[in-house]
Write a structure and sequence with these properties.
By secondary structure, this protein is mostly helical. The chain contains 8 helices and no strands. The protein starts with 7 loop residues before the first helix and ends with a helix.
Length: 189
């Protein structure tokens, strides 16, 4: 069981010492991100899970070699990326053997694109979590579930006007929170 104030530094120390709560902390914090990243590269949910699970196994096996300065997220991302690229190369060799030469090479640029896309999706989800509850509900129902104002108003027992205002408020807040991320991403390429 994790302590309430368990932070990244505590988790890394626990991991290095061989305590499972350290591994559990990183699993809880990075599994979804890594799984999304692997699925974007492989387009196979089961294989993506396998690549991510393998990364956590490697992390556990190499825990004594870790330092307090290293980024676990970066290490896990690198392991998953390498696992996925190796898997894609293996699949390509199998296809070449079955059908002759075929150009299915995964370029470094496509991997970088997937990393940026994964980080952006993670940031958007994190931003949605920071919205006020009603704004988040309205935004999710409208944009993710495709519901109309009247349907949302009935479901949340609000007026359609209030739903419209909450949607507009959510968009304004998201733009304020996302704009710095977009500027950062634009300048990093």
């Amino acid at each position: 069981m994790l302590k309430p104030n368990f932070n990244t530094e505590d988790a890394l120390q626990a991991l290095i010492q061989g305590r499972e709560e350290g591994l559990h902390f990183f699993f809880e914090n990075y599994y979804s991100y890594l799984n999304f990243f692997a699925q974007k590269l492989l387009h196979d949910p089961l294989l993506a899970e396998e690549m991510v699970s393998d990364a956590f196994i490697k992390l556990w096996e190499k825990r004594e070699e870790l330092s307090m300065e290293g980024s676990i997220k970066s290490l896990l991302s690198t392991i998953v990326r390498n696992n996925c690229i190796n898997q894609l190369r293996k699949a390509k060799r199998m296809r070449i053997g079955e059908r002759g030469l075929e150009n299915t090479e995964t370029t470094e640029q496509s991997v970088l694109h997937t990393i940026v896309e994964t980080e952006t999706v993670k940031e958007i989800i994190h931003t949605l979590d920071r919205l006020p509850p009603k704004c988040r509900q309205v935004f999710t129902l409208f944009f993710l579930h495709g519901k109309r104002y009247k349907e949302i108003a009935q479901e949340l027992k609000l007026s359609p006007h209030t739903v419209r205002n909450q949607k507009q408020r959510a968009i304004r807040l998201i733009k304020k929170m996302i704009t710095p991320l977009c500027l950062l991403l634009m300048h990093s390429f």
